[in-house]
Amino acid sequence: MHPNPAFRHDDRQLFETLIAEIGFGMVFCTTPDGPRVAHVPLHSTGDGAVQFHLARGNALTKHLEGQTALAVVNGPDGYVSARWYADQKRVPTWNYVALELEGRVRRMDGDGLLAQVEAVTAREEARVLGGKPWTMDKLPDSHRRGLLAAIVGFELEISAWRPTFKLSQNAPAEERERVIAGLELQGARAIADLMRKLVP
């Protein structure tokens, strides 16, 4: 989390939207073998937890249960050129959105894992253009069981939400407008859009 309090946010619904819209993140944990990270689809339960699954052979899988871990969701970002500012004392920076979720991890049972995989698949299939959404029941039972046996489901109960919404809040409104225009020109429309929507 960025140390500048100007870049904090406290809208829990916004955090939930970020998790749902991005749907993917990283889980970090210290293990006896050193720090490890896994890149995972994330599913928010809506009541203060995020779920994810790992391949059974992942370096984190055997260490996560009962540990405190950190899940990170990275939102839009964009380089901010100093040439966009009228104030010549400003320097380049990077605007970005990130959400850190810290909490204790528990291993899920088979039913919970299946529900998680189905929820993630349904969310993502709804975004795929054309055709009928794919569902798990398209797989033969034996194949589905084999695939589910190869992964392990986890739930991280969130004890700390640490958001960073670095959107040039520390710059005057006219400078922010110049940054927004510059980002849009560079094709970084998502971060520019968030600057418009979230910074008064």
UniProtKB/TrEMBL annotation:
Domain of life: Bacteria
One Pfam family in the UniProt entry: FMN_bind_2
InterPro entries cross-referenced by the UniProt entry: Split_barrel_FMN-bd, TR_PAI2-type
PANTHER family: PROTEASE SYNTHASE AND SPORULATION PROTEIN PAI 2
Protein name: FMN-binding negative transcriptional regulator
Organism per entry: Erythrobacter mangrovi
